[in-house]
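Z., the sequence and structure:
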Amino acid sequence: MTLAAYDGEILATRIGAGKQLTIRAKVADSGDLDQVRAIWSKTRGTLTPSADPFIQIWTAPADGGLATVSVRVRDGEGAEGVAHLPLVVEGVLSSEKAMTSFAFVNPPVSGKIDQTARTILVTVPYGTDLTNLVAVFETTGSNVQMNGFDQKSGMTANDFSKEKVYVVTAQDGSKAEYVVRVTIAAATGRMLTSFGFLEPAVAGTINETDKTVTVTVPFGTNLSSLVARFTASEHAVVRVGSVIQTSGVTPNDFSAKKTYTIVAQDGSTQDYAVVVSMAPGVVGMTPKNGAENVNQRAPFILTFDRPMKKGTGHIVVRNLTDGTDVETIDVTSDSVSVANHLVTIAHGPLASKRYAIRVAGTCFLDETGRYFAGIAEDTTWSFHVDAEALSAEFAEITTPRHQPVESLALNFSKPITGLDASDFMLTRDGVPVEIRPHLLSGTGSTYALDLRNLTSLNGQYILTLKALNSGIQDAAGNSLHSDVMRTWQMDTEAPTATIAEIAPDPRNTAVGEVKVTFSKPVSGVDTSDFELTRNGTAVALTGLTVARVNDQEYRLDLTSVTGTAGSYKLTLKISDIKDAAGNALAAAVSDSWTTDTTAPTATIAEIAPDPRNTAVGEVKVTFSKPVTGVDIADFELTCDGTAVALAALKVTKVNEQEYTLDLSSVTGTAGAYKLTLKISDIKDATGNALAAPVSDSWTMDNVQPAVLAVSSTSPNGWYGLGSIIDITVKFSKPVRVDISGGTPSLTLGTGPTARSAVFLSGDNSDTLVFRYTVAAGDATSRLDYASTGALALNGATITDSVGNSAAMTLPEPGTAGSLGETKAIAVNAATNYTFAGHLGGGKTGWWYDVRINPVSVAVDTKGNIYMGSSFGEILKFKSSGELMGILSIGVSYPHIAIDAAGNVYVADHHRVQKFTADGSFITTWGTQGSGNGQFNYPQGIAIDAAGNVYVANHHRVQKFTADGSFITTWGTYGSGNGQFNYPQGIAIDAAGNVYVANHHRVQKFTADGSFITTWGTQGSGNGQLNYPQGIAIDAAGNVYVADHHRVQKFTADGSFITTWGTQGSGNGKFVYLSGIAIGHDGQVFVADSYNHTIERFSW
């Protein structure tokens, strides 16, 4: 949709003050225009409608400025479109910017404008949604905005839940701000909309005209503390007096009228009168609920709490036993009578059943018209009617029996009265026995007769309860309909039993069928009545059965359980075997026999000691029972699996169960022996052969343990001062070490002073461990023991388990099995270094044809020597001193380092260069400066085992990868821990720790620059330093410092070991040391720039 202004037929957007323009709205795709509605508005001037709703005549205001005409179009389906047309009014620009009116479209309320404070206050009705209100306003300004957005009167919606600021702009551009605050009026609702109670759950009736509430609660309800459940108008407060009420929570006493006051949010009130009354109720029933033995014709009576009268409806008599209605009584009939509080209900005769009475809720009402709620549940009024004849029964009496009848129960079909001792008659074998009154006890329907003293004698007993003329009746008057009788036989003689004697006895076969005979017929005989033991231990009879021949003879087959040798006893126990009267067996009976089928066994006495180093003497053989037929042919002896002849030996009989055999002449040779007694013709007295062969084994060992090899559990490599090296001596067999008289030791070849490794552990094994601690002065490139006799007992003993002393001779040093051959362990705690040659300076030595002015020195893994010359050259020599090549780099004072691959790193001036071992250029990095990766005359360079490059430069250390990528840096200027003052030398140990020589000290760091320790002060004493220029680490971890006119050697933690060198130009003398390096064999190379030489030292 679009808007256009026409001055006549000409389009226009500018017009003089007071002039008119025709504004036309064009709607595209509008469909049925009759269903389209247009709403026009403007910011200034006036709009006059025309016959066409899409055309308006706009008259410009009298003053110049900007104006806007807007139109909102909505079709019949709710689709909307909005268009705005900005116009310019030519004339004098006005400064007017007042908001002259303000209102809302829905709800239609106007605001109050305070032109002085420039505030607009609007109060809207309760419930108004403030989040989407459209304002209608008028203004003398040319434009109205809020938060930078244009506001259109009657169109723009805003959220007025918070205050809004309207900005009015005058024609001249000046602005005024109006603050709009919208408040919601308080709620006026004060109606009680529902009322009832939680317990009992009843609802009240609200009469809005009378402002009353009536509630009827069930009979018996406690009115003094009822909790009301109610609802009221929104935001209203409910009070009773001054107490605020909470629905479902606040209790009140409703025994009198209660006034509920509803207080609206605006403070207005409305009172409601609440009246609670109670429905009529029953206070008594005849018969009572749950009553028993009710007469079949007795009337039903209800007693109410107040006078009652008949209503309409029915009373139903229900048969609960059968679940049927047996009688329905109309309350208006003559069967129902009401007298004040009592209601009497007549009915027809009832059977012996359980009944319930139901009463309709309309049957009875009080004088005020309140109805009795009625009886709707069968459990409210139910009872049992008794219309049955009376019967009785004595408890059962076992017959025949062996004990007197004690307390005999007599049970009637219902409670009775009129029973006494004269109603009974007892006879024994036809002779009356008197029953005295005190022997009868009981009440109701259960009685007992105590007959224990009347029925102990044997005989035939008859007990009768007489019905005729007895006077026995139930609660309903029913008499006993017939006599009740019990008869029994008394028998107290116990049965006896006999087990037929088992023969033959003793025996070597299983017993078959055993016969048991009783003195009278019995029952209850089964396997559980029998007990069979063998050697006193029970034998399970599971699976056996007792065969009944007749009531006096039974048989038990024991074939399957008596085949094992032993002493047997079969017992018939006194258990549950009884005669017909219940008399138990008089006494247990038993029979015993012996079966022997056990083969003899033998035991060879254990030979001790085992292992042993002497021949075995007499061997004892013991049998489990007396035997015969034992001779030398029954024995077999082997040594290492080979038979040993025994024909010349004899067996000695000590008794019929013990024999001996002397083996001293055939067991003196070393080996593994086994003596076996075979199954042959050895038998016991009953002919049972030996059950199984037996044997005993032992070892004869008279061979000395011998040393097989000497080795070490310590890894190959270099070891320095204080290092611990464990040396192992392996024997040909496990040995025992007794150190009560001294401690074994192993003398080592460790340089000028022989050292001993002292026994540490290994007792009772084939490997002994000796411990050696490297001491000052110890040095060897291949650790070994001193000689074949280096293993000394020193008062101790080393034997095998049988006492053979060990041979102490060791393999020849340097040969197979020696320490030097099995391990490559080197020791360097040398304190005495000697001059071994030099390069340059006119001193006789390796090489003297090349000018030498060394500033640094390095040694690769092959022993080649690299020298950095102040002439800008890198010279490479063989270990023999022969020059291999010269690399000219054109920069003076190069400092060099060699990595594990033989690559050469040169720190010079402001960079690091990397070359192959033959001098081919690889890469370079660094520029002058103090940033990461920049240098300022670096003085030291070192490579760690991982190939990382460390450069000591100015007052810091920088760490790079092998290709020059920066990793980290540490250090600042100063003398504190981790600070430097022009560090001169740097070295890395095998663990990756970094050592930096600087000023008068050495500092030690982790690989990432964390400070570990420091040592050294300025001076010339041991451990003191004077501007050290070089530092190196040997394979053992010793630290060497090139310090002015001398070399000092320390442990890895800075403990002083030794020093050598003085000022001068002779061998072993120095003027100014500029570098130091350690060869793979521990030789020390020192660069002396003032003497123009590199000197080599060895220990």
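The radius of gyration is 64 Å. The domain at 392-490 is CATH 2.60.40.1220 (Immunoglobulin-like).

Let me know what you think.
H.
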